[in-house]
Amino acid sequence: MKSADRLLDLGCGCLRGGVHFVDYLDSGHYYGMDLSQELLDAGYEEELGPLGLKPKLPRENLVCDDDFDATGFGVSFDAVLAQSVFTHLSLNHLKLCLIRTADVVRVGGQFYVTVFLARQGEDWSRPLFHETGGVTTYPAQDPFHCTPDDLEYCCKGMPWKLELVGDWGHPRDQLMAIYVRTE
Q1: Does residue 82 contact residue 113 with C-beta atoms inside 8 Å?
Q2: Helices assigned H by DSSP within the chain
Q3: pLDDT tens for residues 9-49?
Q4: CA atoms in the 13 A half-sphere facing the CB of 136
Q5: Which of 40, 80, 161, 167 is deepest in the core (most CB within 10 A)?
Q6: Phi and psi of 123, rounded to 5°?
Q7: Are strands 62-64 and 30-34 parallel, antiparallel or unpaired?
Q8: 32: closest CA among 52, 15, 49?
Q9: What span, in angstroms and rounded, lies between the C-alpha atoms of 33 and 99?
Q10: pTM as predicted
């Protein structure tokens, strides 16, 4: 990622990770969405404030939304991040997120997502225990796991191409996938 890129951070919460992006990116190039206005407000005041980063993040770049609608920003994003978001969404919500974000990501842009994946040979239709992190995931309740085929299915017919990155050292065993905007 270059400092001139524009990043949309879905599920940014209280900006614990966002502060690093705000610090790195050019002024005004970080955008965050979360379903909790309280977390957004706390992050702006308590995380950015003490670090002197509020001038780099216009308050209107943080939006409370539970529908993945980033069109109001009026920006074409180079990258989107959904860290520990897809693990709490059903497949229908994953698909909705991909539909909505396709409208705001430039061709070639990348959408980074973390997921709990059922590994080769695991019975994805049952709860799965992830030893790293000690998390049990489910096929139809939060926290969700899915299969690579599920992730591929969610972008079928859309301008996204799936790339599975896999293990990236997440402490709770979430794996990384990237959707690349193709057209």
Answers
A1: yes
A2: 18-24, 37-42, 49-51, 91-102, 148-154
A3: 999 999 999 999 999 999 999 999 999 999 999 999 999 99
A4: 4
A5: 80
A6: -85, 95
A7: parallel
A8: 15
A9: 16
A10: 0.94
